[in-house]
Amino acid sequence: MKLEGQFAIVTGASRGIGAEIARHLAAEGATVALVGRRSEALEETARSLDGNRGRIFTADLRDAPEIAGLSRSVHASFGRVDILVNAAGVWRDEHEKFHGPNLADTPEGQIDEVVDVGLRASMLLSRLVLPGMIENRRGKILQIACGFAGPHEAKGWLHYYVTNKAIEAFTAGLAAEVRSHEIQVNCIAPWFVASEAVVRMFPSEAKTALATGDVAKLAGFLVSRDADHISGQTIELRSKLDQT
Ligand SMILES: NC(=O)c1ccc[n+]([C@@H]2O[C@H](COP(=O)([O-])OP(=O)(O)OC[C@H]3O[C@@H](n4cnc5c(N)ncnc54)[C@H](OP(=O)(O)O)[C@@H]3O)[C@@H](O)[C@H]2O)c1
C-alpha cells in the first residue's frame, strides 16, 4: 500500500468526488480526516472506508475561525499532516445548479460561497498545514478544480469559472514557493464527473462523464511518493466518451 502510515485531510469528503478520494487514500493505507459540514454524511463515508481509517471533522469552510479550529483538531489527533486534498467546492445547492444567470443577476451570497469554499478555504487550510510539512521536509497538497474549454464556457457561471482558474494559479504559485521544502502541490481539473448530483442536474452530460473513481485514482498517485517529481501542475481529465 502506497500511503501506509500517512495522515491525510480530505475536504468535501461527505459526498461525490471528495468521498471517493477519501476511500481511495484509505485503501492505500492512509488515515483520513473527513471534512464537511454534515456529520451524518461524513459518518456514511467513514463506514465505507477500509480498515476504520476515517476520522470525522465537521467545519464550515466559509468561516476562517472554523478552519483554524479544524487544523488544530486534526493536528492534535494525528500529530502531523502529510497530505491535504482540497476537494470541497460549490457549484450547486441541494435544489439547483449555480449555472444560468450572468454576473449582474448572480446573488452576492452565491458569489461569496463559491469563492470562499473553492479558493479561500484552500488557501487558508494550506497555510495552516504548511509549517508542519516544512518542518518534516515532506508534504503533498492537491487541489480539485474544474476543467473548462475556455472563457466562452464561463457564461452563466463566471464566479465558478474564476474560482477554478484562480485555483490553478494558486497551485502553480504555491508549488514554486514550497519547492525547496520538498513539498509538492498539484491540481486535478476534471470535466463532468458522474456524481449523484451531476446525474440529477446534468443528466445528458452524465451519460459521457468521468467516474468519481477516475479522479480518485489520479489523486492517489499524485499524493504518493511515486509523484515526488511532479509539482505545480494542473492535469485536466476528460472522459474519452465526451466528444463535445
Ligand atoms: N461533479 C463534477 O462534475 C465536477 C467536475 C469538475 C470539478 N468538480 C469539483 O470537484 C469538487 C467536488 O465536486 P462534487 O461534484 O463532488 O461536489 P458536491 O457533490 O456538491 O460536494 C461538495 C462537497 O463540498 C462540501 N462543502 C460545500 N460547502 C461547504 C462548506 N461551506 N463547508 C464545508 N464543506 C463544504 C460538501 O460537504 P457538506 O455538504 O457536508 O458541507 C461536499 O462534501 C468541487 O470542488 C467541484 O468544483 C466537480
Molecular structure report:
The protein has 244 residues and is α/β, with parallel strands linked by helices. It has a single domain, classed as Rossmann fold. Helix content is 44%, strand content 16%. It contains eight helices and seven strands. The chain has helices at residues 16-27, 39-48, 64-78, 108-136, 158-178, 196-201, 203-206, 212-222, and strands spanning 7-11, 31-36, 54-58, 83-86, 139-144, 183-190, 234-237. A seven-stranded parallel beta sheet has the order 3-2-1-4-5-6-7, sandwiched between helices. Helix 5 links the parallel strand 5 and strand 6. Helix 1 (16-27) crosses helix 8, helix 3 (64-78) packs parallel to helix 4 and helix 4 (108-136) runs parallel beside helix 5. It is globular and about 45 Å long. 41% of the residues are buried. The model has no long low-confidence stretch (mean pLDDT 97). NADP nicotinamide-adenine-dinucleotide phosphate is lined by residues 12, 14-18, 36-38, 41, 60-62, 87-92, 117-118, 144, 146, 190, 192-193, 195, 197-198. The site of NADP nicotinamide-adenine-dinucleotide phosphate has 29 residues, from helix 1, helix 4 and helix 6.
Largest sheet: 7 strands, parallel
Give the oligomeric state.
single chain
| Estimated radius of gyration | 17 Å
Which parts are unreliable, with pLDDT below 50 for 5 consecutive residues or more? none
CATH class: Alpha Beta
CATH topology: the name is Rossmann fold
- What are the secondary-structure elements, in order, as H or E? EHEHEHEHEHEHHHE
Number of E-state strands: 7
Helix content: 40-55%
The proportion of residues in beta strands is: 15-25%
Number of domains: 1
Separation, N- and C-terminal Cα atoms: 37 Å
CATH superfamily, by name, is NAD(P)-binding Rossmann-like Domain
Please tell me the CATH architecture by its name: 3-Layer(aba) Sandwich
Mean residue pLDDT: 97
What compounds sit in this structure? NADP nicotinamide-adenine-dinucleotide phosphate
Shape: globular
**Which sequence of strands runs across the widest sheet?**
3-2-1-4-5-6-7
Structural class: alpha/beta
